[in-house]
Structures are given as C-alpha cells and as structure tokens.
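User: My instructor asked us to take a sequence, write out its structure as tokens, and then describe one feature of it. I'm not sure where to start. Here is the sequence I was given:
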Amino acid sequence: MYTKNLLAYSCNSRAEVKFNKKINLIKVLIILLLMSICGVFIRNLTESVEYRDSKSFLVADLKNDITMLTETANVIETERVYGKYLEVDQFGTDGKLINSKDISKDLSATLINIADINSNHKIDAAEISELGIMRFRTDIYQKELKTLQFSLKSPDHNLKSFLIITKGKYAGTILYNGNFKFIDNENKRYFGLDLYI
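Assistant: Let's start with the prediction itself. The structure tokens for your sequence are:
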C-alpha cells in the first residue's frame, strides 16, 4: 500500500512538475510577447518623435539658409550701390523677371497672399513685375557666400532653387522655389518670408 501511495504521489508530483513547467513557459512567453509589444510601441513612438524633430530641423535649416542668402543679397546690393558690382542688377539677380510658369504651384499659391493685385487668385506677369521676382546670378552669390563664410545647410542648397523679390516693400526677400517640401511640425509648408500653405 505504501509503495502504491508513493508511486501515485510520484506520478502526481511528476505531472505537477510538468504542468508547472508548462505554466512557467506560458508565463515566459506572455512576458516576452508583452515586452516585444512594448518595444515596438516605444520604437514607433521614438521614430515619430525623431521624424517630428527632423521635420523641424529641416525647416530650421531652410530658414537659416534664407537668412544667410538675405544677408548676402543685402551685401551685394550695398556693394552694387557703392560701385563694386556695376555690371550686376539689383540684389545680384540676372535682371530678368521670372516667368509665372517657372514659379512652383505651391509658391504661387502662397504669393497670392501678398501679390494678388487684381484678385484673380493667381500670380500673373503684372504681379511678378510689381514684385520684381528674379533669379540669382549664382556666380556672384557663390563668391559672396564664400567671402562671408556662409555655408548653406538645407537639403536643397542649389542657388537655382531660390528667387528674390527686387521691388516694393518686400525687396530683398528670398523665396524658396525648389522641389523639396519643407514642412514644419504644424504641417505648414515653408517658402520664406513667413509664407506658408
């Protein structure tokens, strides 16, 4: 009888050990599953924060580039007025008004806020002429940027992607006309002159 009980206890004990091992394995699997879910959540949250930070850094870099280009334009214009750059048009431009077709659709939409004289909700040749929107002479700007020890940092630092207003109260204002989309944390696209869409 004693041996039977001992044998039954031994079998029950082994079954209980197996059962406990399975429960412990299930607990470990549940903990691993929860940890991986938490890890994915934290990674996604971190990526979201990094993406927001990178967006704000990109806009900040563009704003910084526009500030440096504005300073450069002012230096060029001052030197032009005082005789250093006699052969150069205002603010170091090429002297040709830009065609309305060459202004990006999004920049045109933002320029309506400051230049839509005839209230037709588009930028036409008369309004471009009123603002005197032109391209830079890149050779002069590159030379002056180097002299001033300015280096552009935004992803699109191609001088051909920028325009300048040469007339009126906005004279000397730099506008971004490139293909990159500089969108801030509030989902506003930045073009310079605090122009957003």
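For the description part of your assignment, you could build on this observation: Confidence is low (pLDDT under 50) at residues 45-52. Try explaining in your own words what that tells you about the chain.
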